[in-house]
Amino acid sequence: MRFDEAYSGKVFIMSRQDAEEAEAIIYGMPMDWTVSFRPGSRFGPNRIREASLGLEEYSPYMDKHLEEVNFFDAGDIPLPFGNPQRSLDMIYDYAKKLLEKQKFPLGLGGEHLVSWPIIQAVYEKHPDIAVLHIDAHADLREEYEGESLSHSTPIRKTCELIGPENVYSFGIRSGMREEFQYAETSGMHMAKFSVVEPLKRVLPELVGRKVYVTIDIDVLDPAYAPGTGTAEAGGISSKELLEAIQLIADADLEVIGADLVEVAPVYDPTEQTVIAASKFVREILLGWVQK
């Protein structure tokens, strides 16, 4: 799949016609091959697109309109069902093409393992990268039941690739004791339970740096986002995540890519999860895409 090919289906509201002229490319990664609890996040990208049709194009948070951002929705990468390594290779190749074209990659998951090949591609182009990770789960395991390719491992892999001191996790409230011990001893930055206040403290350290942001929808309390594979009680509100996106937008740093993962629509017949996710995507487009 070329970066400028769109599939025949729903696209995010106000997606442009010309990929070559676009500043940002939205792409889906419909993979849930390694989940440890409930599958279904492979259906997230398309349902987020469908929910976007109910959005206002104007954001009162950013005081911007989607017409001000030139973006192209390329649809989903056609990942081979049940084949994690081949799927990750395809995501890596696609992300690398976007970066070579100087596009802002905005990925929709899919399970959280899909972030790993994107971060690999970003690191190859920008070895001074910092990663901001907003999630309920630490995702610092080396393996899950003998499998190193697991949605519980991408942040550990990221720490080993770019250095733990360049990884900043927020909202974490679930994980093995060993994961929290690793966070304490490795030099990575982990803020448990909350997002906004720790972000306010950390963002000044990142002034002038290039950052990649990965957001797992389960950072939200299940009251706000029941449609996810591994829901965790005690999370933040949609309002707090919107504020976090705004804080990153206002900070003096360069966001060079992002993803939003783990939306599993089947567990939320009210559709509040995909509606919230589509709003977060709108705010990311308006706040983080470089002009």
How would you describe this protein?
The protein has 291 residues and is of the alpha/beta class. The protein has one domain (24-288): Arginase, Chain A. It has eight helices and ten strands. The chain has helices spanning 44-52, 84-100, 115-125, 154-162, 177-186, 196-202, 238-250, 272-288; strands at 24-29, 58-59, 64-65, 71-76, 104-109, 130-134, 167-172, 189-192, 210-216, 254-261. β7, α5 (177-186) and β8 form a beta-alpha-beta unit. α2 (84-100) runs parallel beside α3, α3 (115-125) packs parallel to α4 (154-162) and α7 (238-250) packs parallel to α8 (272-288). The longest helix is centred in the first third of the chain and has 17 residues, at 84-100. The chain starts with 23 loop residues before the first strand and ends with a helix. This is Agmatinase. Pfam families: Arginase. Keywords: Hydrolase, Metal-binding. It comes from Sediminibacillus dalangtanensis.
Please give a quick description of this structure:
Helices cover 32% and strands 18% of the residues.
Question: Topology, pairings included?
Answer:
Elements: E1 24-29, H1 44-52, E2 58-59, E3 64-65, E4 71-76, H2 84-100, E5 104-109, H3 115-125, E6 130-134, H4 154-162, E7 167-172, H5 177-186, E8 189-192, H6 196-202, E9 210-216, H7 238-250, E10 254-261, H8 272-288
Parallel strand pairs: 1-4, 1-5, 5-10, 6-7, 6-9, 7-8, 9-10
Antiparallel strand pairs: 2-3
